[in-house]
Amino acid sequence: MTFVDPERPFRAVAVADEEGRFLIGGLPPGSYEIRVEGESPASLAARTEVELPTAQHYRLNLIVSGPASAGRLSVEILVPDHPLSPQRTYIGRGQLDRLPSGNDVWTVIENQDFSATMNRIDVGGLWATRPGLFSARGGGSWTQTVYALDGVDVTDPYQPGLPLVHPDLFALESLELVNSGPPVHVSSPGGLLNLDVREGGSALQGALSLFGFNAALRSDNITPALRQEGLESSHSLRSGFEGNLRFGGPVVKDRLFLFTSWTAFDLERDIAEFEGVDRSFLSSGLVHLTYVAPAGRLRLLWTGQSVS
Questions:
Q1: Where are any strands of DSSP class E within 150-295?
Q2: What is the reported pTM?
Q3: DSSP assignment, residue 67?
Q4: What is the C-alpha to C-alpha distance for residues 55 and 150, in angstroms, rounded to an integer?
Q5: 3-state helix, strand, coil in the chain (%, to 5)
Q6: DSSP β-bridge partners for residue 209
Q7: CA distance 122 to 132
Q8: What pLDDT band is residue 63 in, cutting at 50, 70 and 90?
């Protein structure tokens, strides 16, 4: 089994086991020609092409059909994958896009990670833009969570359990919560949340996402019985808007790749029995450059947020 990059002097070889399983690591994003050969030219010879858009784990099923001497090789499944472990929860980009959730890290953890216990319950998105504390596996302190952005520790030393940055969910490739047995460089006994940033691929791609609502789309959950008890108001959302622009691709073909994401979020809430409007505003920017060299990769990352 050989992966060959037709435009770069790069090739990777693996030998499948008796059940046909193989593992190849260290492939940078790009297009590859896959060549499958048996022990002799007459036993098996086939090839096809595959596109790996980003550097992550993939599960790849290859199907060979036709005569063994000149078989046809097809890719049946190409989906992001990750080794299963009872000590960690992996939430990839595909899961983030498919499952409904709020567009912030803490809402995703609350809704999709059953090993974590939040210090709050976000009903209807009332806590959007506000960081939350959580305990990995429900056993550690809420202030012992460690955050890592592309492997760099971004835990706030003055507010333990919170990160120094407000992660942009649109800019993340995956979230990985390690609830026990963390790496040796993590000194805290709590959980480790790895946030992996997306990278630019070999093709130029972009997306624009817009979300919004106002008071006309809001309902009231105060029943007549509650009004008789004297309850006239409840916490509710008044209006909200969120927009994100992201794009990525090659700056220098096969060498330099760019990914950038920009987000703005404005939310207004009505707080029960209080006058005025409770408003949260968030703006976020991220730029990620990846330089691919024959000996390895150099990644430069900048991110900044303004939160009120």
A1: 152-153, 172-178, 192-197, 205-213, 236-252, 256-270, 278-293
A2: 0.72
A3: -
A4: 13
A5: 10, 45, 45
A6: 244
A7: 10
A8: confident
